[in-house]
Structure formats: C-alpha cells, structure tokens
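Standup notes
- DV: blocked on the single-chain target, sequence here:
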Amino acid sequence: MKKFMLVWCAVCAMLNLIAIIIGLFESDWHTVWLNFGLLLLNSACFVYWLHELWKEEKQRVAIQQESLQARDSRSNQG
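- DV (later): unblocked, structure below
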C-alpha cells in the first residue's frame, strides 16, 4: 500500500506540473497558483511515504542482520 501511495503522489505531482505549464501558456494565474499549492502538497505526501518506506526497509535490514548474527554465533559455538 505504501508503494502505491508513493507512486500515486508522484503521478499527481506530475499532473500538477503539467497543469502549471498549461496555465502559464494560457496566462491563467488562478490555475497556476492552485496547482502550485497542490504540487507542494503532493510533494510533501511523496516525501512522507518515501520516509515510511525507508523506515520499513531499515527495519527489515536490521532484522535480517540480527538473524545473520544469531546464525553465525550458533555456527561458531557448534
């Protein structure tokens, strides 16, 4: 679910960038500012989910290292 949300935020941010570019060409400043705000919101969302995935991966690696250390200590004792 976290990877889906990360991709969703990235896609929404790209759509906001496209809308900003279109608004600039059409001189529609309300659209530009609205999408700029939404781009900031989507960027914050992207960073949040990226951080969540990073914490999950860090925890997974720590558990894997602990199990490897436990296995090594058992093999050294035997």
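- Follow-up: The two ends are 42 Å apart (CA to CA).
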